[in-house]
Design a protein that fits this description.
This protein has a domain of 94 residues. Helices cover 51% and strands 12% of the residues. It has three helices and four strands. Strands 1-4-2-3 form a four-stranded antiparallel beta sheet, with helices on one face.
């Protein structure tokens, strides 16, 4: 049973079915994206739950660098649509057999990603505060 479909993304197209994008050029090939870019595939699914499942499956495969085996080319490495599809089909069948465990892992990854975003925002605010303090120090010579 086919639960997802992968096609090459064309920039002006929009999709009505639940979908996400997969980068296909460079060392980040296989990285799932929520927004499209010029060099990507689109993965459409049957529903939101399955899209979420496939997105996190693809994310896990990308983070574990399992797409690197399929990279072709020396200057700008890329991955073929056939390799992505085959690898995702095999990985989906393995993850589906352990669906409950995989689902728990997805929830943990979502929580970690949310914490990572909060930390990045905190670091950005700290950097902005440092710059403001230094600017105040540099432009007000009578601060001392």
């Amino acid at each position: 049973m086919k639960t997802f479909r992968i096609k090459t993304h064309r920039l002006p197209l929009t999709y009505s079915k639940p979908h996400f994008f997969i980068l296909n050029k460079g060392l980040n090939s296989g990285k799932p994206l929520k927004e499209s870019c010029p060099n990507c595939f689109v993965c459409t699914t049957t529903g939101e739950i399955h899209r979420d499942f496939m997105y996190w499956l693809c994310s896990g495969l990308w983070k574990s660098k399992s797409f690197h085996y399929f990279l072709k080319g020396s200057v700008i490495p890329s991955i073929t649509i056939g390799d992505v599809k085959t690898h995702l089909e095999k990985s989906e069948s393995i993850a589906s057999r352990n669906f409950e465990r995989f689902n728990q892992s997805i929830q943990a990854l979502k929580s970690l990603e949310l914490n990572e975003q909060k930390l990045k925002l905190t670091l950005k605010l700290i950097d902005t505060a440092k710059k403001a303090i230094l600017r105040q120090l540099m432009y007000k010579s009578d601060a001392f």
